[in-house]
Amino acid sequence: MNNTSPFSFLASIVNRFQPPAWAVDEGQQRLVLFLNHVLMQEKQAQDRLLRQKGQVVHVRWGVFAIDLIVTPAGLVDRAPPGAKPDLLLSVATESPLVIMQSVMAGKPPPSRLKAMCSWRLRSDGWPKICAGMQKKIYPA
Q1: Is 78 helix (H, G, I), strand (E, B) or coil?
Q2: How many CA atoms lie within 13 A of 89 on its CB side?
Q3: N or C end: fewer C-beta atoms under 10 angstroms in the chain?
Q4: What's the rounded Cα separation, in Å, for the pair 121 and 86?
Q5: Which of 95, 96, 28, 34 has its CA nearest to residue 59?
Q6: What is the pLDDT of residues 10-41, one digit of tens each?
């Protein structure tokens, strides 16, 4: 008896699909606009980011990745190419279908964030943010 999913063929196509550069560029720009819209609604979050101006965050989810830089206004923008990230965030759950199914069921998505801070950030606020995220993401 064959136990493979009839949709495994579709998954292999999606994994090989590479969107054109202009689509990636436009998608990242839309993501930045969305993040800034959310940040502008939360003054406290914007103030906390303001202390990290100039810092670069590399965010990765599966094959999608973006480098964001914190602006002097406490918002985010795309970092210039080749910028060295100060913080790495990686979402472990790669399937958007799994995430959507859990959200539609009213449960939190089964994803975990991994945060790694570089050594040179020990003197500023990122390690505190990382420690706080670790507590929220990996509660004891």
Answers
A1: strand
A2: 16
A3: N
A4: 7
A5: 28
A6: 666 666 777 888 998 999 999 999 999 999 99
Residues 61 and 137: their CA atoms lie apart, in Å, by 16
- What confidence score (pLDDT) does residue 103 get? 76
Strand, helix or coil for residue 59: strand
> How is residue 89 annotated by DSSP?
E
d(Cα 101, Cα 83) in Å, to the nearest integer? 36
pLDDT value of position 34: 94
CATH of 23-137, one of 3.30.750, 3.40.50, 3.30.1050, 2.40.128: 3.30.1050
Tell which residue, 31, 29, 73, has the closest CA to residue 49: 73
Strand partners, 76: 70
Q: Which segments of the chain have a pLDDT < 70?
A: 1-15, 92, 94, 109-140
DSSP E strand stretches across 2-140 = 56-61, 64-70, 76-78, 87-91, 113-117
Asked if residue 54 lies in contact with residue 70, where contact means CB atoms within 8 angstroms, the answer is yes
